[in-house]
Amino acid sequence: MHPFLQDFRYALRMLRKNLALTIVIVLSLAIGIGANSAVFSVVDALLLRPLPYPQPERLAAIWLHSPGIGIYRDWPSPGQYIDIQNENHSFKEMSISRLTSFTLTGLDQPERIDGMNTSSGLLHMLGARPLLGRVLLPEEDKPGKPRVAVLSYGLWKRLFNSDAKIVGRSITLDGHQVTVAGVLRPEFRLNSEVMPAEGPMDKVDIFLPLPLGADAVQRRGDENYNLIVKLKPGVTVQQAQADIDIIASRIREKDKRDHTFGMTVIGLLDQVVGDVRRAMLVLLGSVALVLLSACANVANLLLTRAAGREKEVAIRTALGAGWQRLARQLLTESVLLAVLGGAAGLAIAQASLYLMRAINPGNIPRLEEISINGSVLLFTFGVATAAGLLFGLAPALRAIKLDLNTSLKSGGRSGQTEGGLLVSRHRLRGLLVVSELAFSLMLLIGAGLLIRSFVRLQNVSPGFVADHVLSMHVAAGGAKYPDPKSVLQFYREIGDRISHLPGVTAQGQISVLPLTGAIGWGGINVEGYTPQPGQELQVDQRVASTDYFRAMKIPLLKGRYFDDHDASDGPPVAIIDEQFAQRFWPRDNPIGKHVWFDPKKPIAIAGVVGMVKQYGLDSGSKMVAYFPHQQAPDGWMYLVARTSANPAVLANAIVREIHAVDAGVPVFDIRTMQERLYDSLARQRFASMMLGAFAAFALLLAAVGVYGVISYLVTQSTHDIGLRLALGAQPGQILGLVVRQGMVLAVVGIGAGLIGSAVLTRVMAGLLFGVSATDALTFGSVAAILAAVAFAASVIPARRATRVDPMIALREE
Q: What is the pTM of this model?
């Protein structure tokens, strides 16, 4: 160990001796390694770490799809669940659940609780164990049993102060008495990433039985349930898919479904990760390019330092040091730099994760599980060591090939120029700079595509005016509102109260508010349209109050909005959106035409409104049919209020008016529409910011690399430049000569970067909106910017070269 300790101590002395250079190198590596560690910690939590359930690789979900009618993922029904249960050969266990929200009363104030009705098999499959009491029992899957509930640890702690006597106590959910059967252990978590809901939902806090009677097999159209299955040992997802395809074809024929109807089996981890996988892999590739660029830059810096240590190396060689000994010493210094960079990088990675949680782009699943753990530490150590060896090879190879006689000459220069400044001994430096430029261009083009995509996305109209609109979710349900009349009376009263608040210019309610994640679609029939055999017609269905469209400023294109004449005892009416009208009446007036659910109860079309981006600015919209709240009462509604001032200021006043009518009604998810619109772009904004930051850092490294190489070449070629000036060369010629060397590097680097970008940006295609992965404007603009930066980085040392005094330069040689 003694030689290694000797090398280590010597390396420390050399790093302290060149402290400024050491700091620059460590910071460069810290950013590169830190970014890689941060992104790897996300990839580790999302893609590499199994879900926290027993045998997670055997867990899967089943979904419906009918792409022919624009449905790519839909929830199954109890009837379909029973069909699968009876006919499959792939699943050891199955569960059916329905996510919902409950209103808990009897505490200081009403609370909205996200929960589910579920068969007992779910908690067993997911390994849920009770801290107190018990979990759901198999016999509770049948009707006629007492109503019970199992609480999550978080809910028990938050609302019941960790009461150890909670088991056996009655609580009131939606006006019904329910007995607490147990409390789950704190490590068990179930959220909407594992069990996607029809509306916005964070985590499941309460579990109730889902008793299915003999009539469940007939409930085929009630497609609102999650199916989680456990595969039999040795059965793959692909084999289960082949099995479920046969069952789906039988259901398609039996229920006369759309000819594209089918079912999908997806591994539970794949369901959790969703479409984030591609974004994470793009991000991981991007930070790898940043690290490679940093390594190339550091290698250039070390080559510059090695040039100043030629005599030292030559003397040590003359005294008997072998090339292995010299290479080991130089690699020790490089690895030590990398380890210091890795240590600083861990701090940067930790700060990055903290910033990521604070920003919370909203599309990163398992965010709470992302941390700097043992795997990340091992990854960081591996990356740091590999980086140290990578950028340490260049000076080590240079030392091995050193010309001993030339280096021992006093003030010796060699290999000056042959028709230019860049000759064989400097090709390695040139190659490193070319690599930096290529990596930078690839990152810049990726960032440019994302930024252009983001800008285009921001310019997409949501179909409503988001300024000065406050929104909130109101839950008037349960035993207190058992009939449509009571629901309508409640919303009529709060509407009157809110309308008279100072600053409120319009207010309304809608069953499914845009940009909330809530959905609601179903089948409908249209006058004059007869579906082909095996086809269905599905549209988004909304219940809206009279003034909702005015409050949101959704434009009326034809006909009229809802009004007070559209009462429960009046003729049924509907409003459709522009897409609906264009589909069925492109050259005709749809006003007065009819749609229906029941052929005996036709619904007249009263108006046509503009299209609204329901699910995001980057997603397509389904056709929409709106029905008046008075004719289709719904207790759970989103309330919107347009204000003349800052809408957030009126939030408390509006909630007070609602609670003045009924203090037991929960009001939650209170946000302005501007906030919802801003957050709907969180994924794109986050990706653009991250890739843009990486690209900016890589561009800086490339500029420093070009500047460093050209400066070094100018310094090494002082005699040659002085000779040219003495022989009559003009400063402009010298300037052009030096700049030309920098631009040669730039052109080669840009060419390599364009080729690499054309290949790699195709992976990003799914992340872009309105921009091609090979967008010529982005490619050309970024290449021009990088060329300009390289030119500027070359001009500075080139101008210094023109000021060389020929007499001093010639005297030096």
A: 0.80
